[in-house]
Amino acid sequence: MNRKEFRDLATPDEARAAIDSLALEGGIDRVPLEDARGRVLVARLDAELDVPGFDRASLDGYALRARDTFGADEADPARLEIVGAVHAGEKSDVVLEEGQAAEISTGAVMPDGADAMVPVERTDTDGGGDEVLVRTSVAPGDNVMFAGADVAAGERALGPGTTITPRDIGLLSALGIDEVPVRAKPRVGIVSTGDELVRPGDDLESERGEIYDVNSYTIAAGVEDAGGEAVLYPHAGDDQDELEGVLRTAADECDLVLSSGSTSASAVDVIYRVIEEQGELLCHGVSIKPGKPMLIGRLDDSAYVGLPGYPVSAMMVFRTFVAPAIREAAGVPAPAAATVSGTLARQERYEEGRHRLMPVGLVENGDGETLVYPVDKGSGATTSLADADGVVEVGPETDYLEAGESVMVTLFSPDVRPPTLFGVGEDDPTFSRVLDGLERPRYLSVGSRPGLRRLREGVPDVAVVAGPLGRESEAAELGGWEREWGLVVRPGNPDELEGLADLVDRDLRFVNRTSDSGLRSSLGAAVADFAEKRGTDRHEIVDAIDGFDLGLRAYESPARKVIDGDADAGLGLRETADRLALGFVPLGEQPVRVLVNPDRTAKAGVRELETALADVRDVASGERMTER
Amino acid sequence: MNRKEFRDLATPDEARAAIDSLALEGGIDRVPLEDARGRVLVARLDAELDVPGFDRASLDGYALRARDTFGADEADPARLEIVGAVHAGEKSDVVLEEGQAAEISTGAVMPDGADAMVPVERTDTDGGGDEVLVRTSVAPGDNVMFAGADVAAGERALGPGTTITPRDIGLLSALGIDEVPVRAKPRVGIVSTGDELVRPGDDLESERGEIYDVNSYTIAAGVEDAGGEAVLYPHAGDDQDELEGVLRTAADECDLVLSSGSTSASAVDVIYRVIEEQGELLCHGVSIKPGKPMLIGRLDDSAYVGLPGYPVSAMMVFRTFVAPAIREAAGVPAPAAATVSGTLARQERYEEGRHRLMPVGLVENGDGETLVYPVDKGSGATTSLADADGVVEVGPETDYLEAGESVMVTLFSPDVRPPTLFGVGEDDPTFSRVLDGLERPRYLSVGSRPGLRRLREGVPDVAVVAGPLGRESEAAELGGWEREWGLVVRPGNPDELEGLADLVDRDLRFVNRTSDSGLRSSLGAAVADFAEKRGTDRHEIVDAIDGFDLGLRAYESPARKVIDGDADAGLGLRETADRLALGFVPLGEQPVRVLVNPDRTAKAGVRELETALADVRDVASGERMTER
């Protein structure tokens, strides 16, 4: 194995400077007004006409010569001859002489000779309608909007760099402008590499080690969020010629090329070689965690950034270094500072002297304070960020942060709002439906025992636990129900399983759950009972069940192994079996309990959950809640 | 004139309740993952597979049986036989026995028999490469990500109501989901009426009283901002059958129909009639200013809201009543509360007992406090909102607000940022270019005298004044330049004008500027000089100039009158004449001075302007600044 080593790691500031030195700007687009919202004006727009373009009546009433009304009042109205009418959108041929008036509607052109108007409410007409009594005096200009009063020809309308709002579209409409010059969105090519990657929607062969390509669509969404235009290139695999071709095409067509995905040495080698031949490498490796293996350089006339392969690392690097550069090039202002200060929920240690970007979740405690907890499923995790609200940056000089320390969290976006309820614990389909009805819940299915432990540590609001638990919690119960568990088998139960005895005595492949799971606890208790009844040792029974030690984390996975033909029976719920149209051999019922953090009973999200749980008994007894 | 009166005005709360009672919800869209960003999930999505789908090596190194390494360290490494290699994306046929290891790359499937892996950094290979020395002991599971560790099959992935972020797209990608069920955007039909309205881009006949249709595109942009889909219907004019047809088509095709634009009685009558025949009118008229003439009802199966015709009123009503309902229907969360508290810059009086929505601008004073000033160009103004930052709501019981009173401003959107510099005063093309180079300036061209007055009142940062001014200001000068003014005439000056004498003695039509303008002041001074030279009275000269009293507000308007053939000469700048390819007869040079509010000299935006003004002398002497 011969791999490039990351020597001479750049500091985060050096990496930022390297990206800033690359020109990402696109050119100029001319877009129709209806597509201009949110785009950034590239040049000043001046008014080329007066708005309004004529002296305009502000109300319905009568156009007249102001001096004809001088001295008029309720008692002694001025009597004027009506010589015509002008409506909005009509050309007026009326010319007023002394003592004359013209009926006029709001927005109509003031007729020649008129210098003011009086609203209809201050007038009366005689029966005949050829005279109007004006019961007020008006001054020249009253109730008239003069040409150019709104916008004057030659006036500066919008400056370069303006991000066009609906209000600006109003101004541009008034000026008759139906096309505006805006900054072209920087085109960002996304090249994903790695033989193991499959595009979402295609079939996955797990036994070949295939995984879905997370980075392409995620980074594309990030690019669009930052004001760029994402261009996804066909997935290149690890074939060197193919990868080189894709990189060069992307560099030719885009302002910035982002590669990501491959962890293979050969892909890295191709990228290094292509950049060395056709461009320049400004930075390889940054002293940051996650994100060390970041490349920054030029490729032909395009900028190039190589993102780490792991999705969480790739997104963190993208957010921290690349998104600001795209926003800058797009002319999109940096989002309003969206930071929240909170209290770190547990101690964090840092081994390496690298700048650290720590994804965190937020939860409000009983006192309305924000607790901050790290979200980390390990370096290969693809999905941690969906459970996080923001990032805490920790400098390289910091070895640890104490629990209770105050930290500043940069939210992923200004509109991130922390969950109203934070729960952890057992996977349970009934609880999942309950969550659907809540305002903004977050639930991490870590299993019953870890859930209970976390509840004791004081971070989540509630924990959901199932089955018998060795150590009872002091936490109060918010609600609970029973669920039926047993063996999930092939449709129609062709092997005619009846219970545990079949697993012990017959040659059947079983799939278990991990010991985190409440189902596994109930199975353990059932096995102990069974052993006692047979008058034998529990270990003997366990050894006799093929697959008892193979525990899967996911509550549906044993059932899915049965579907795939990899097992004859799996530990699971009747509801899972029903939903996947599989057979089911009941072994018992187990309680599911929702336990609440004693400090949080008054929290709004907890009370919302408590109300929702009051309806649950029906659900557990077989009725399905309708999805909202 | 027989007009519907607005009796029984609804309160703002009643209007809100009426809109809430209308169902605006669209149905369900299924969108591809790449279009899912920002959309709102309509149903829960559960994981249908484990992520990863297999036990996966977390690093490059060797897969092995953990117990073979027990006790190994630097001094006494474990020696294992290499029996194969597994790469990412490859199916492995390797099966490890005791004492064996397999080369493995990051992301590859753990081979059968292996229960842990050791990173390559902790190993050595002998020259031959068929043995590996492992210099550390590992526990079962070390450096392995187990199937389902990231996401477990059956796990709740995203709940209904989730607004999809790039991070959620990462989670969906990992699950292989390439299409998601989201709330359809509510379809909002926009019907603009009024014979006087012309769509931007089309030709305008001002003499017919035509104006550009501001509401259609502006409201459409507002609809899209709120998460709806805007559908613009062809402009209906005031023809009753045509309007009725358009309204019914829109009601048939949309979840909500918004009409706006017409101020004509006949259009209002049609709308009343159609709604009475085909729907229900819940509310006609709301006790709010601006916005009184708002209609709320149903039209066939669609909701209907009639917006006021005046663009500012229409937008304010849309923002206050309609946008929240569209957001609710779209499932888009209300934007984070974006409010700013500030100090009212001047007293405001309110005559009527109506709830008032007052558009305001913001400016930071010298102490870093926010001053709030009303932005109001009069009820017919179309463009005031482009100069405003937010809204102050004033209850019907409030008669006036004192200057200096603290008010709460709701920003138009959370990303509104007040201008870095607020200037008022003379229109000037040089200054306009200077503004282009500044960060985020706002400039209201109100003319020299009003600008100076406002500067004295203490609201703007700077005022730009031109020409001679009766009353000198105490304000310090930040910069200045000279500009050449005179008569703008037809190209090539076919009438051979040489100066003021031609306007006085010959039969030429002249167009003047209003007395707000510094140009008009200089012309006034020149007329006085000319009268003195002729030994006559100033008034006689003025009377002899055809059009002297006709002042236009806009600095380009006189020149444009010359282009249109409506005048032989207009008051203007050489620069305007040059840019519009017209002839020019110089009458003099006048100073343009930028005066600064004494409290604001240290403000960042003022210093930025000061720096930019240092370069202006070159510009004024004929060089053009390049646009940024």
UniProtKB/TrEMBL annotation, chains A, B:
<dbReference type="GO" id="GO:0006777">
    <property type="term" value="P:Mo-molybdopterin cofactor biosynthetic process"/>
</dbReference>
<dbReference type="InterPro" id="IPR005111">
    <property type="entry name" value="MoeA_C_domain_IV"/>
</dbReference>
<dbReference type="InterPro" id="IPR036688">
    <property type="entry name" value="MoeA_C_domain_IV_sf"/>
</dbReference>
<dbReference type="InterPro" id="IPR008284">
    <property type="entry name" value="MoCF_biosynth_CS"/>
</dbReference>
<dbReference type="GO" id="GO:0005737">
    <property type="term" value="C:cytoplasm"/>
</dbReference>
<comment type="pathway">
    <text>Cofactor biosynthesis; molybdopterin biosynthesis.</text>
</comment>
<dbReference type="InterPro" id="IPR036425">
    <property type="entry name" value="MoaB/Mog-like_dom_sf"/>
</dbReference>
<dbReference type="InterPro" id="IPR024370">
    <property type="entry name" value="PBP_domain"/>
</dbReference>
<dbReference type="InterPro" id="IPR005110">
    <property type="entry name" value="MoeA_linker/N"/>
</dbReference>
<keyword id="KW-0501">Molybdenum cofactor biosynthesis</keyword>
<dbReference type="InterPro" id="IPR001453">
    <property type="entry name" value="MoaB/Mog_dom"/>
</dbReference>
<dbReference type="Pfam" id="PF03454">
    <property type="entry name" value="MoeA_C"/>
</dbReference>
<dbReference type="InterPro" id="IPR038987">
    <property type="entry name" value="MoeA-like"/>
</dbReference>
<dbReference type="Pfam" id="PF03453">
    <property type="entry name" value="MoeA_N"/>
</dbReference>
<protein>
    <submittedName>
        <fullName>Molybdopterin biosynthesis protein MoeA/LysR substrate binding-domain-containing protein</fullName>
    </submittedName>
</protein>
<dbReference type="InterPro" id="IPR036135">
    <property type="entry name" value="MoeA_linker/N_sf"/>
</dbReference>
<dbReference type="GO" id="GO:0061599">
    <property type="term" value="F:molybdopterin molybdotransferase activity"/>
</dbReference>
<feature type="domain" description="MoaB/Mog">
    <location>
        <begin position="189"/>
        <end position="328"/>
    </location>
</feature>
<dbReference type="Pfam" id="PF12727">
    <property type="entry name" value="PBP_like"/>
</dbReference>
<dbReference type="Pfam" id="PF00994">
    <property type="entry name" value="MoCF_biosynth"/>
</dbReference>
